[in-house]
Specification:
The chain is of the alpha/beta class. It has helices at residues 14-32, 45-51, 57-65, 77-80, 89-99, 123-126, 163-178, 194-206, 220-229, 241-255, 292-304, 308-323, 340-352, 357-366; strands at 2-10, 35-40, 68-73, 104-110, 130-136, 146-148, 155-157, 183-188, 214-219, 236-239, 262-266, 271-275. The protein binds 3-isopropylmalic acid and manganese (II) ion (MN). The site of 3-isopropylmalic acid has 8 residues, from helix 5.
Length: 372
């Protein structure tokens, strides 16, 4: 298969982790005889520094002309202390999601057997947790009208949803449930918010089309608790933009590190694959950023294009790296010298040579192998 991939490394640790994902995709292309081409674009703080805007037109065109987009991370430390900044890195990502109409953000949360000990939650509660969050991505409070009064003392953000916006992601979530444990939990705040009541109304109207799927409802406050108290009760979580942002970050506790969560952002026409973590500016260029979320995003990209065997090999390589403790310091209590690029090298090597890798492990760890 030929795939032209727009690569947007972005800010902070974005370039380091995306370099590993590209490395892995190149290894897959080589191994399976595909032609993947990569074209890089600017977004976020780095785009502001170079062009004055967070999402240059060239980047939009690059993404629209590519088959898909691989995104790294966004955000710069200095903006956190400047709430009055008119141009902000995050606008790049938000505008791109809107521009490409990527309304469905799919965030799988699976507890790895080898990492149960890494979670701050008790092993017996998280074992076998397997959830997918369907987060609406191009509407709600993120994109509603924003106001700031002239005196700067009053501000507002409107949370607005239309039936159409709710229906299109709900259908995707119902379909996903059908190939899983057939359960959807709609998370909202319908006891308070009008927009949440519209979500409930619309999904109740759609439900008869999916009689084989059980539909459940939880208020966001309760859902936030249930997610850490009993994550195994969930299968598909469907929710609006901001609740999905918060719940997915919380869900990373189940997996052991936010550096492990990947996502697919899908629309009618375009697709983008992005780790759920931020730019983690403090860690930039230290070689400590976990590249697995980016590499898993690349696996989701392969799955999206039907390259299932290829994606399965990437996932096997990741499992192996976790099993052998070839991981960055956020997960590693055994070895202290495994960097971002070493994890990428290991996964690349496994793809090139799945049978041999295990044998070479001692050398890899001791730094004697030529592959590192
Ligand atoms: C995410 C991020 C973004 C979001 C930020 C960087 C705008 O937190 O993808 O979860 O809030 O959607
Ligand atoms: Mn987030």
């Amino acid at each position: 298969m030929k795939l032209h991939i727009a690569v947007l490394p972005g800010d902070g640790i974005g370039p380091e982790v995306i370099a590993q994902a590209v490395k892995v995709l190149k290894a897959i292309a080589m191994e399976f005889g595909h032609i993947f081409t990569f074209e890089y674009g600017l977004i976020g703080g780095v785009a502001i520094s170079k062009t004055g805007v967070a999402l240059p037109n060239e980047t939009i065109n690059l993404c629209k002309n590519a088959d898909t987009v691989l995104f790294g991370a966004i955000g710069e430390h200095k903006y956190n202390f400047d709430p009055t900044a008119k141009v902000r890195p995050e606008q790049g990502l938000l505008n791109l999601r809107k521009e490409l109409d990527l309304f469905a953000n799919i965030r799988p949360v699976v507890a790895y057997e080898d990492l149960l000990e890494k979670s701050s939650l008790k092993k017996k509660f998280i074992k076998d947790a397997d959830i997918v969050i369907y987060r609406e991505l191009t509407s709600g409070i993120y994109f509603g009208e924003k106001t700031l009064s002239d005196d700067g003392n009053t501000a507002s953000d409107i949370c607005r949803y239309t039936r159409f916006e709710i229906e299109r992601i709900s259908h995707l979530a119902f379909k996903a449930a059908r190939s899983r444990k057939r359960k959807i939990t709609l998370v909202d705040k319908a006891n308070v918010l009008e927009s949440s009541r519209l979500w409930r109304k619309v999904i109740l109207e759609l439900a008869p089309q999916y009689p084989d799927v059980t539909l459940d409802f939880l208020y966001i406050d309760n859902a936030a608790k249930q997610l850490v108290v009993n994550p195994r009760q969930f299968d598909v979580i469907l929710t609006e933009n901001m609740f999905g942002d918060i719940l997915s970050e919380e869900a990373s506790v189940i997996v052991g590190s936010i550096g492990l969560l990947a996502s697919a952002s899908l629309g009618q026409k375009y697709s983008m694959f992005e780790p759920i973590h931020g730019a983690y500016s403090k860690a930039t260029d230290k070689g400590i950023a976990n590249p697995i979320a980016s590499i898993l995003s690349a696996a989701m990209l392969l799955e999206h294009f039907g390259l299932l065997e290829e994606a399965a090999l990437v996932r096997r390589a990741i499992d192996k790296s976790l099993n052998l403790h070839i991981t960055t310091p956020d997960l590693n209590t055994k070895y202290d010298n495994i960097s971002t690029s070493k994890v990428g090298d290991f996964i690349e090597d496994f793809i090139n040579n799945p049978e041999e890798t295990n044998l070479n492990f001692t050398n890899i760890h001791l730094g004697q192998s030529t592959i590192i």
